[in-house]
Amino acid sequence: MVKVVILGQGYVASIFAIGLERIKNGEIKPYGIPLKNELPIKFEEIKIVGSYDVDKSKIEKSIFEVAKNYWPGKIPETLKDIKIKKGVHLKSLRNLPIEAEGLEDGLSLKEAVERLVEEWKSLKPDVIVNVCTTESFVPFGSKDKLIETIEKDKREEITATQVYAYAAALYAKEVGGATFVNAIPTLIANDPAFVELAKESNLVIFGDDGATGATPLTADILSHLAQRNRYVKSIAQFNIGGNTDFLALTDDERNKSKEFTKSSIVKDILGYETPHFIKPTGFLEPLGDKKFISMHIEYISFNEAVDELVINGRINDSPALAGLIVDLVRLGKMAIQRKEFGTLYPVNAFYMKNPGPKEMCNLPRILAFEKLKQWIGNL
Amino acid sequence: MVKVVILGQGYVASIFAIGLERIKNGEIKPYGIPLKNELPIKFEEIKIVGSYDVDKSKIEKSIFEVAKNYWPGKIPETLKDIKIKKGVHLKSLRNLPIEAEGLEDGLSLKEAVERLVEEWKSLKPDVIVNVCTTESFVPFGSKDKLIETIEKDKREEITATQVYAYAAALYAKEVGGATFVNAIPTLIANDPAFVELAKESNLVIFGDDGATGATPLTADILSHLAQRNRYVKSIAQFNIGGNTDFLALTDDERNKSKEFTKSSIVKDILGYETPHFIKPTGFLEPLGDKKFISMHIEYISFNEAVDELVINGRINDSPALAGLIVDLVRLGKMAIQRKEFGTLYPVNAFYMKNPGPKEMCNLPRILAFEKLKQWIGNL
Amino acid sequence: MVKVVILGQGYVASIFAIGLERIKNGEIKPYGIPLKNELPIKFEEIKIVGSYDVDKSKIEKSIFEVAKNYWPGKIPETLKDIKIKKGVHLKSLRNLPIEAEGLEDGLSLKEAVERLVEEWKSLKPDVIVNVCTTESFVPFGSKDKLIETIEKDKREEITATQVYAYAAALYAKEVGGATFVNAIPTLIANDPAFVELAKESNLVIFGDDGATGATPLTADILSHLAQRNRYVKSIAQFNIGGNTDFLALTDDERNKSKEFTKSSIVKDILGYETPHFIKPTGFLEPLGDKKFISMHIEYISFNEAVDELVINGRINDSPALAGLIVDLVRLGKMAIQRKEFGTLYPVNAFYMKNPGPKEMCNLPRILAFEKLKQWIGNL
Amino acid sequence: MVKVVILGQGYVASIFAIGLERIKNGEIKPYGIPLKNELPIKFEEIKIVGSYDVDKSKIEKSIFEVAKNYWPGKIPETLKDIKIKKGVHLKSLRNLPIEAEGLEDGLSLKEAVERLVEEWKSLKPDVIVNVCTTESFVPFGSKDKLIETIEKDKREEITATQVYAYAAALYAKEVGGATFVNAIPTLIANDPAFVELAKESNLVIFGDDGATGATPLTADILSHLAQRNRYVKSIAQFNIGGNTDFLALTDDERNKSKEFTKSSIVKDILGYETPHFIKPTGFLEPLGDKKFISMHIEYISFNEAVDELVINGRINDSPALAGLIVDLVRLGKMAIQRKEFGTLYPVNAFYMKNPGPKEMCNLPRILAFEKLKQWIGNL
């Protein structure tokens, strides 16, 4: 059994909840889940036990009610049992057309963390999955600085994700083991502050930023070129979509969160730097969750011949990430069982855009998958 | 030192010769050569010692003169030294606007083979590279049938490539070792007749059909999807180009040569069969050697979401293959030194569209590259 | 009021019937109908009074029942009233996985024509719309030859469409006016035999081959380039789909029907011939009615600069044609009222891929639309 | 004879000068020039008599020397005769890696204008072509405000283009007629201040912003959809390139110059507003002058079917505009001869992205071309 708590009951979390129940009910095939039903922990053993959000219109509703906004089909009845609790926002919804409400509105950070830990001790999750909206953040770097920020209630200097990850560490310490899956760009698995804390607290961290969309595909196409020693002259990659995440990225501050990411996949995969333009480009509401991607790559082949590739796609953003989460919660439980606390590169390298720990780089995904299978062992 | 004989002095062979000399002269970087200059055998050690063709307008000319038709730049002077000899055609240029002339016009097959072997004993190639025009062929299956066809001069039942491969085996036997690189679709490494003969004759065979163009990229993109357990609903892949090879493929008989290829990459990579349309589609002269490719892939992701990818490209056909040949001739020499006669899957799996031997299947190229590096050893 | 008889109750006819009823019911907007509700004849006045097919499994069923196979939504109840009658096939379904049955199985051609005319005199259609499967055909050229073929029952030398058009002429003569809309490639509006007959018989012919899919878009893009005097070097256009029409086109004989079409749009629009590859390319069942198109255009701009365009699309084939038919049946009635018998280029030039009469050529569609509006008058 | 002065000797002006001379020499065909050699004024009659720039490294050099930076071929010798004079910059190169120097550095605006008028009276141009770098600007709206700005030397409130256009009006008044072609986004033909001034001063203004790149193509594709009453749900259009203009647009202030443009082509062509994202997206140096464009359009067809189009292109930016300028200078001379002072919508509607005067809108380009031909008369 893997008990799961969700942080941020938006598109991804709703599709995760719906798809998981439909698979458990035998309604659909487990497409989009890399490890299928081949892990020792089966789909049937995954159970969502709690969910948090800060959107006033969601708090106290059931996942069943909220999920209706994200999927036109028949929502599984089992989702009626899970009520959405109030989380922390810390301005994570700033500039978005959403009325937010958080635990910290009436409490100090420290009290809010204590409240979360108390609730989790009652819900007993193995894995806590963070799928909040992209935040504007600054990594802490040192554990002391992180603790001081909480203690001194410096709420301007911390984001919701950072508070949740801190609470997860306290919770893990108390119960003897837990996993925090960070599927958004805020650096957690890449912030030594959190990794150090996790090691001391029996916390496993998976992160950062779930590897969906054009980036993993770009990584594999660049690997393809690199293996043939074709010299990449330039890379342009555009993304445009209509979900809340694209809306959030129209905010410059959030977009700047990319500044803290490690050197890009480009150098990691190619072995050299090359001019590139890779970033979310715009918000276009009618595209909904099915974003449009466009990528242009120009490279030099043998005898100075110049080739070009253009890749276009329509890709459903939330299901792609939701499918990965079905693996991540099971791998999270396995990591706890194996007591591999801290962060786990063999998992991160395949599932994350920015695989922690900080000093590690991006691998071609096809190779990362081989590494992952080795870690798992008996696949 | 690797001595090379070329069979078919067309686009690929000319670009190979030009590019190789330019690299040796330090004029250009070795882009498009997967193993770069990292093999124990260096670029500088590769030497073209002979070339064969059946186009009347090429025979007795130098590579220098012929190469002018394929590249607008300054052709290296060193290519003036190699005269093109008369090969065998066996109607390989049927329906093409080329006047052909072959050794077999005045000789029996057996005599033609003997002539080739004699010439090669004087040229002393380590590696014989077949880059003829795509042929309409039937594999032999058994060595006896192959030998009988030559002996009884059944010239309707054999192609130029098959005659060349047979001659290569006789030559290898006499000199103690040689490699035959088959870069076209005719089954050689996948025909047990030739593999058996090669083992007995100290011949290494690399084949079949150099892995250039859209197919290896398709393989890696399908691997990418398969690793995420996305279910591929359909694949369409078009190719159109303006070189002689596309012209040759407008001939139905040649296009049928695909019927003898093994089950497609689709099943090998995905693990299941799915509807697909993958074939060269047409000839359009102004595109020249830089073909246009278009690929559409539709797949099912988590919770039944349907995604689409469209990949377009302009890809120089001949340089892509020529770059691989720079590796294959060096690997061919290494295989002779290691006495690994027969055919070599770890090489074929990366470099060939249809990697022999017959019973082996297609691997994701990124994994094949890892296998290749293991075979080489000290990379 | 416009009364309509349909020939060929397949995908297009079913979507036409469904969409029309839904628009009349106010369920949906009239998107995809070029002239919207701006004609003197309103959508509400269009009434399907009869339908013909030769698929055994459809004959005697209602449109309601048949339409279920082509659309997953709620089929309008009004379609229960129209039973599908037996038409003529003349091997139009040859090589397709459909069991066919036609009037001519038990009758001479002449008798079959008489039967159709009798039935139509009872159904009283203003407009007869031909949306049969693409046929392999030879145009007649002369009216005498056409009449002789019917009289002498030379059923090997005539197609279903040609028989229907002949019957339409007899019917129009008897009732004083009717329109035959030929939406498939068989030449009717481009065959002087039929145009002459139509003029004598009070028949209006619209044809040939409804202008849907990539071709009209190609025409407008080529116009765009021509107006800037950009020299088009080459054009490649691929189409692949999964409906019966694509399946039918895998039959070489049918594909040859293109041989009889007039000089292509390329020369008509550009004013010069240029190398091009434009044809349906393949059948891929999972694509269904939503075909994938890919087009590559390379052209020369000022100072010899070379530009490239690649257009990809997913386009629903049948709705595109069905939307045009909503206009064509209304224009057909208007043409009868105006007694413009024969064929009408101002209508054909916008709505047809191969606008008749034979001596007329393709116009940029945007200009053709202006011509159409002039013909209509008060738009 | 048409005498031409160029403002801004960058990429466009250099390609214009080179291509024009090559055409006059019979070296190349006049591709990319919409009206070919069919105007009463022939290519041979166009003569560049002067050129201005503010890049210190260009001033006092000949066009021949400067043009080398923009084209690898043989530069026509005739371009050695034209020396580049110092223009005005007014911070138009702010934030660009270029050292600028302008007449206004040592003079008041009024004096700088007088200097320009004096020089032009000696060079005697018929047509003054503005192809400066994109500027950050505010339109004047009223002639009085414009005059006051010059008189009072408010140099913070005016751009180089606005100063040039003002000088052109003074010059035209003195010599009895001239044309100012504004090929960049700064509003001149759309600013009533300049149009009023032009009418009083015998000046013809063509503008604003030469219609090259993806926008005119988008306009024609949208027209195509609109004529079929397909409802466009969303439009995304990306552009990325490596020339100075793309570099300039990475500056937010310049990009804001778009705020002053009229309601977009989307509404003008479709007749309704629809969500769209259309703007230059980024700078990628290796793409050079050959930008990459990507466009996604989703629309509703008959019976609620949803179709998609994706258009990708590699388009040479400067030759596209240079080709239009060959027409514009000839049309400019014709307009002077016809005394059609002020601004000319029939010319602007085809050649300009933002056709003046202010109150006029965008037409489908194919229709605009018909209007243009009517204005010209005897084509």
Brief account:
The structure is a homotetramer of 379-residue chains. The first copy, chain A, is α/β, with parallel strands linked by helices.
Structure write-up:
The structure is a homotetramer of 379-residue chains. With 379 residues, the first copy, chain A, is of the alpha/beta class. Chain A folds into two domains: 2-210 and 319-376, NAD(P)-binding Rossmann-like Domain (Rossmann fold, 3-Layer(aba) Sandwich); 214-316, Dihydrodipicolinate Reductase, domain 2 (2-Layer Sandwich). Chain A has 13 helices and eleven strands. Chain A has helices at 11-24, 63-67, 109-123, 143-151, 160-175, 192-201, 214-227, 244-249, 252-255, 265-270, 317-337, 345-351, 365-376, and strands spanning 2-7, 46-53, 84-86, 127-130, 178-182, 203-206, 231-241, 276-283, 290-300, 306-316, 342-343. In chain A, strands 3-2-1-4-5-6-11 form a seven-stranded parallel β-sheet. In chain A, helix 5 runs parallel beside helix 6 (192-201) and helix 12 (345-351) runs antiparallel to helix 13. Chain A is globular and about 65 Å long. The first copy, chain A, starts with a strand and ends with a helix. The mean pLDDT of chain A is 93. Chains A and B meet through helix 1, helix 7, strand 10, helix 11 and helix 13 of A and helix 1, helix 7, strand 10, helix 11 and helix 13 of B.
